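@channel sequence for tomorrow's demo:
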Amino acid sequence: MRNLKVNKEVLGILILVGILGAFSRYDISQAYGESCNGPGNCPEKGRAVTDSTGRYCGTCNPSCENPPGGDQKVCGQCSCFGGGGGGYEYPYEYQYQYQTPYTYQYQYQYQYQYQYQYQYQYQYQYQTPIPPFNYSLSNSGNTSVTKTSGNAFGQNTITKTYIAGNSTPATIISVSGVPSGVTYSITNNSCTPTCASVITFTVSSSAPVGTHSITVTSQPLGRTTQFNLIITGSSITVSCSASPSPGLLGQNVTWTGVITGGIAPYTYSWSGTNIPTSPAPATNPYIKSYNTVGQKTATLTVRDSDNTLGLCSSGGGGSVGTVYINFDPNFQEF
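structure tokens (generated this afternoon):
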């Protein structure tokens, strides 16, 4: 390197500048070429400025230059010292001003409006579950029918009583235990409880007397009810008479029984004065002759097909047959 001449006044400045230069990006190298006439008066072709590696960065010039490498350089003031082909440059500071060339303004406006209207009207009314349909079946009691020579009638009322559940029609499906000679009909059979059905029994003269258990069954649910159908025979009234009356000894007297009630056919049995008992006469009318004078009586016992008994006597409800037998002057007893 070349020997340098430095004034004392300048030395202090150089030391200070040197210290500052230690913090600079670029250093001042040895001046080449032309001389300077004092600080800030660099010639047009000033001193060369290199960085610390010796790479050329530009000339000593107050203007801004872009050195090789792409860094942007803002030049400070350049001063030259010395003369006659020699001298020093104090380093100037390079100030880097970095301004991001990209300005990004991000504005995100998000307006979210969610309107949710939910209206649910729920009305719950608790109800006790409806029980199954139920009803009961009953009757009006025993039915009694007295037979006649024709048809006799009797009725029984069957009541269907509501108990629970949804009402449903109930129907009588059977009437059991009905004896022969008896028929029946049902009115208002299928009806919704509470209601009543009526059974009408038609009892013919051939129906057996006695007590008959009747069972009535209805559906749904197979409900039953029982009662007795009591059939009695027709009462018999018997009246007896003799003809002729009075009678005469040895004359035929005709005894006739008149029967009211009962059910034919009938059976007869005569008894009375001078009437044989074994066997007893069993015809009606009955013919008898007497060989003694005086009052004669006759009683007729009648049984009908139901074994109903009738008598032509005070006990049987009829009058006892009587006849008076007189003496016949023409009668000759041999």
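heads up for whoever presents: The radius of gyration is 78 Å.
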